[in-house]
């Protein structure tokens, strides 16, 4: 994965708004371990563009928006425990 500064984003999931929390680079690596079909470009994150990220992952994994949010939340929870 390309080197990117550690990105800290506000952690909230209010209504239909989803925000990335914690170190996205670490979370993206974990997602790639679990889903090898995800590329760096699929997981590229720009603050404020969470919806675009979700859509790319939805399409690549053929999962619903909520399933993708659940996958990311699972990785975020694991990161917090480490």
Short description:
With 82 residues, the chain is mainly alpha-helical. The protein has three helices and two strands; from the N terminus they run E-E-H-H-H.
Describe this structure in words.
The structure is a single chain. The protein is mainly alpha-helical. The protein has helices at residues 24-34, 50-61, 65-81, and strands at residues 13-14, 17-18. It has one domain (13-81): Protein Yjbj, Chain: A, CATH 1.10.1470. It has 3 helices and 2 strands. Strand 1 (13-14) and strand 2 form a beta hairpin. Helix 1 packs across helix 3 (65-81) and helix 2 packs across helix 3. The chain is globular and about 30 Å long. Residues 21-81 form a coiled coil. This is General stress protein CsbD. It comes from Ohtaekwangia kribbensis.
Total strands: the figure is: 2
Q: Indicate the CATH class.
A: Mainly Alpha
Strand order in the largest sheet: 1-2
Low-confidence stretches: 1-15
Mean pLDDT reading: 81
Helicity, as a percent range: 40-55%
Kindly report the CATH topology.
Answer: Protein Yjbj, Chain: A
Order of helices and strands: EEHHH
Number of domains: 1
First-last Cα distance:
21 Å
Largest sheet descriptor = 2 strands, antiparallel
Shape: globular
- Our count of helices gives 3
Estimated radius of gyration = 12 Å
Assigned CATH architecture? Orthogonal Bundle
* Strand portion: under 5%
Structural class call reads: mainly alpha
